[in-house]
Amino acid sequence: MRTDYExxxxxxxxxxxxxxxxxxxxxxxxxxxxxxxxxxxxxxxHGDIDIIIWQKDLPxxxxxxxxxxxxxxxxxxKLHVWEEGDLSEEINNVWxxxxxxxxxxxxxxxxxxxxxxxxxxxxxxxxRRDILLKTKEGLPYLRPEIQLLYKGGSSHVREKDHADLRExxxxxTIGEKEWLRTALLTQFPGGHPWADSILKQESEEQSRIxxxxxx
Length: 215
What we know:
Layout: H1 13-20, E1 27-30, H2 31-39, E2 50-54, H3 58-65, E3 70-75, E4 78-81, E5 93-97, E6 104-114, E7 117-119, E8 127-128, E9 132-134, E10 140-142, H4 144-152, H5 159-168, H6 174-187, H7 193-214
Parallel strand pairs: 2-6
Antiparallel strand pairs: 1-2, 3-4, 3-5, 5-6, 6-7, 7-8, 9-10
Helix pairs in contact: 2-4, 4-5, 4-6, 6-7
């Protein structure tokens, strides 16, 4: 078991792409890096890097990385070595380092699917099929509105999550913003401050356009 949760030297998005590009599984960059890939520039320092995969691809992930990397399954606030034979159905978060003592290099987050449809674990009525986009270089990443849902839908929304929303919101289409706002209000029927922020930003943008048209 490891407890050095802050001990990170994360791969870059390009390094992660090289590592996963020959692995025959569904994968994509997620987290803050996914948002930066969408914008087209790095907006802040990233203390880690997240890769998403399907649950059904966990055995292939283990087979591919277990020979040269240390895999730790996260659960209950602890990190235990992922041993061969552990039930993959019980694993949804994997931390990876090169040796038992080296810093963590990347984190693998397992998404839930029904067939080829993604299911949001925190509110399972929220489902979607088109969850990925690609950079012009072909690097797959989680759609920004879905990544922001994971951030805003957390029980602990961090300051960097609020900063990410402010940074990314102007780059979202009307449809992407509306999807995010609807999803947040589905998870939080009583309201969510990010839903209010989206409406405010849309209103300000509409006012700006109207003002320009009158010139």
